[in-house]
Amino acid sequence: MSRVVFLLIPRVHLLDVAGPAQVFSTADDLGHPYTLTYVAEDGEAAAVQGLVLRAETAWPPLAPDDLIIVPGWRGPTRPASTATLRHLRDHHASGGTVAGVCAGADALGRAGLLDGRRCTTHHTVQDELARLHPRAEVVRDALYIEDDRIVTSAGVASGIDVALHLVTTRHGPRAAGQVARAMLVHLHRGGTAEQISPLFRWRSHADETVHRLQDLIETRFTERLPLSLLAEATSCSERTVTRLFSRATGLTPLAYQTALRLERAEHLLGTGATAEVAAREVGFEDARTLRRLRARAAAPAGR
């Protein structure tokens, strides 16, 4: 049986705790034994959402197979003590895994665990993490990063993704899939997925016609959607559809559909599907097309 220790910092975010805790609790229910322990320096931590969480003050003995997870909090807050940070360092030095959700990455940085390693955090505090820990390599716009048993994530719902990732690495994709299904999690996103989905990234405009077009594309993104069909659905000309869509989102309708297909394909690949299966499931002609588009999306801007 493995132990998962959650280090609770004052003003902790509830979902940063509850999401990963639910993953490992569900894994335990499904036959992968885990014991969950909560530690706080003062014996309790008030969540920023108003709930007070009670915890142990003494750290349990840990083995290399155990996990430490540091959920994020809303600052400013009192940093973890030197003794607490030593627990993080010692566990990693003994072969254990330490994970930080959202601002939890800062605690890992204060423990010296981010030096020389790739890491990430919520997109609103990435610059702050890079400023506080200049020896860390902060990766922008990633859901989670694992580097030498140091795991960091963007926070909020991505805490579920990183916990499912840890279940996958320990028990395989089938076990993680069982947990995700039990939790009714629609997607187990890969770590390199963008923090903001295409479903939301290009939805901040006020054009109702384009919103209707996006609804249609999102519902039928695996199908061939000729411009004539989109024009008929909105009673616009094809030229008007392209103009309105590009003005509101910066993309053509086809580029938007391709982005949705790639996001779904990344999920399928992350859960063990072959490129051929993923390509077929999302509507691409073949795996070669999927590989080409993935390579293009991963290429640095300007290349």
Explain this structure to me?
The protein folds into 2 domains: 181 residues, Class I glutamine amidotransferase (GATase) domain (Rossmann fold, 3-Layer(aba) Sandwich), CATH 3.40.50; 107 residues, Arc Repressor Mutant, subunit A (Orthogonal Bundle). Helices cover 46% and strands 13% of the residues. The protein has a 6-stranded mixed beta sheet with strand order 2-1-5-6-10-9, with helices on both faces. Strands 3-4 form a two-stranded antiparallel sheet. The protein is built from 13 helices and 10 strands. The chain is of the alpha/beta class and 303 residues long. It starts with a strand and ends in a 5-residue tail after the last helix. The longest helix has 18 residues.
Number of strands: 10
- CATH superfamily membership of the largest domain: Class I glutamine amidotransferase (GATase) domain
Percent helix, as a range, is: 40-55%
Overall geometry comes to elongated
CATH architecture classification of the largest domain = 3-Layer(aba) Sandwich
Radius of gyration: 21 Å
> Could you tell me how far the N terminus lies from the C terminus, measured between alpha carbons in angstroms?
48 Å
Pfam family, one: DJ-1_PfpI
Protein name: Transcriptional regulator GlxA family with amidase domain
GO molecular function, one term: sequence-specific DNA binding
InterPro entries: Class_I_gatase-like, DJ-1/PfpI, Homeodomain-like_sf, HTH_AraC, INH-QAR
